[in-house]
Specification:
Blueprint lengths: L1 E4 L5 H13 L3 E6 L4 E6 L7 H5 L4 E5 L19 E3 L2 E3 L3 E7 L6 H14 L3 E3 L17 H14 L3 E4 L14 E4 L7 H8 L5 E4 L6 H13 L5 E5 L17 H8 L4 E3 L1 H5 L2 H13 L4 E5 L17 H14 L6 E2 L1
Parallel strand pairs: 7-8, 7-14, 7-15, 8-9, 9-10, 10-11, 11-12, 12-13
Antiparallel strand pairs: 1-3, 1-4, 2-3, 5-6
Helix pairs in contact: 3-4, 3-10, 5-6, 9-10
This protein binds phosphoenolpyruvate (PEP) and manganese (II) ion (MN).
């Protein structure tokens, strides 16, 4: 339920209304709409008399929200949420580039790639330390050692870092990580979502391989309902019947998600296509569709990468993508900052 408050409300009246709502065991998420204050009610609102509230002097309108996601709902929060990562903003008219290897492989590798992607224009460094692999025999990541190397790269380049947390037991190792990624395979790991919901840190929530947009937004709701509203969504392709690409990039999800939620959304064209030469066209298409950023896999030696070499760009190819993205950004009213 949302309550739209009249523009010229008296503070005392608002205080007594919010006090009464809270006494009904319902939480309030207040946000500023274009003109009016909006009170979003979270919890069991079935006992709240909608006509009674509508009749109050300070109330302009009351609406029931049909969708099961509330805090993530655009109706609750009409303005875009801006997630700030050390001054780099996700959402609104900002556009961000996250780049780096699929996995951290060595100090030389991660620092070399960090410097290269920074020089090409990336603002944030990615790199997996804990890797969710289909095969238990495949490289699983350098784990804690990989995180140390990422932090070293952060220190050397000044770039914030984004890396995946696979299980709650490792959460303490992630204190200096700037964006915690929840990977596609963990999108519905509800205990993990609740755990990162208790942090005060940006979370990159990837869409599950076979999850609907509504399920994805419900996963965002899990994080937000624990108090962490710094959620960045990431469309990374979904499973379809088409085997020619690793996944199928759901481009239409971008404008649709923007109608449904106030949260920022970025695209991962690397995992979406699985093919390096498709990364540039899919990046440009994502910009055109209104994405708030891109996360792109870049490796100095893709044929020898320990993970996802086939979809990784060389630094010079990444630089070409950035140049073309920059040409397109003014068309969609966005700036890189
Ligand atoms: C990754 O970012 O390297 C990754 C494993 O992504 P996803 O969870 O989208 O497959
Ligand atoms: Mn990868």
């Amino acid at each position: 339920m949302i309550i739209i408050i009249k523009q010229d409300y008296e503070k005392e009246q608002l205080d007594s209304l919010t006090k009464w709502i809270k006494s009904q065991g319902v939480k309030i998420d207040a946000s500023k709409g274009e003109k009016n204050l909006i009170l979003g009610l979270v919890g069991d609102t079935s006992k709240i008399d909608i006509d009674l509230i509508r009749s109050l002097d300070i109330v302009e309108n009351v609406k029931r929200i049909q969708e099961p996601y509330k805090l993530a709902n655009r109706k609750f929060h009409p303005q875009d949420t801006i997630v700030d990562v050390s001054g780099h903003k996700f959402g609104g008219n900002s556009f961000q580039l996250i780049a780096g290897p699929c996995s951290v492989e060595s100090e030389e590798q991660i620092i070399g790639i960090a410097k290269a992607v920074k020089a090409a224009g990336a603002n944030i460094l990615r790199g997996g330390a804990f890797k969710p692999r289909t095969s238990p025999y495949a490289f699983q990541g350098l784990k804690a050692e990989g995180l140390k190397l990422l932090l070293k790269a952060k220190e050397e380049t000044g770039m914030p870092i984004c890396t995946e947390l696979m299980a709650e037991k490792y959460i303490d190792l992630f204190q200096d990580v700037d964006i915690i990624q929840i990977g596609a395979r963990n999108m519905q790991n509800f205990d993990l979502l609740k755990a990162v919901g208790k942090l005060n840190k940006p979370i990159l929530l990837k869409r599950g391989l076979a999850n609907t947009i509504q399920e994805w937004l419900m996963s965002a709701e899990y994080i937000m309902s624990e108090g962490n509203e710094n959620v960045i969504l990431c469309e990374r392709g979904i499973r379809t019947f088409e085997p020619a690409t690793r996944n199928t990039l759901d481009l239409s999800a971008i404008p649709l998600v923007k109608e449904m939620t106030h949260l920022p959304i970025i695209v991962d064209p690397s995992h979406a296509s699985g093919i390096a030469r498709l990364v540039e066209p899919m990046s440009l298409a994502s910009v055109g569709a209104g994405s708030d950023g891109l996360i792109i896999e870049v490796h100095n030696d893709p044929p020898h990468a320990l993970c996802d070499g086939a979809q990784s760009l060389r630094p010079e190819q990444f630089e070409e993508v950035v140049k073309k993205v920059d040409v397109m950004l003014p068309l969609v009213g966005k700036v890189r900052n």
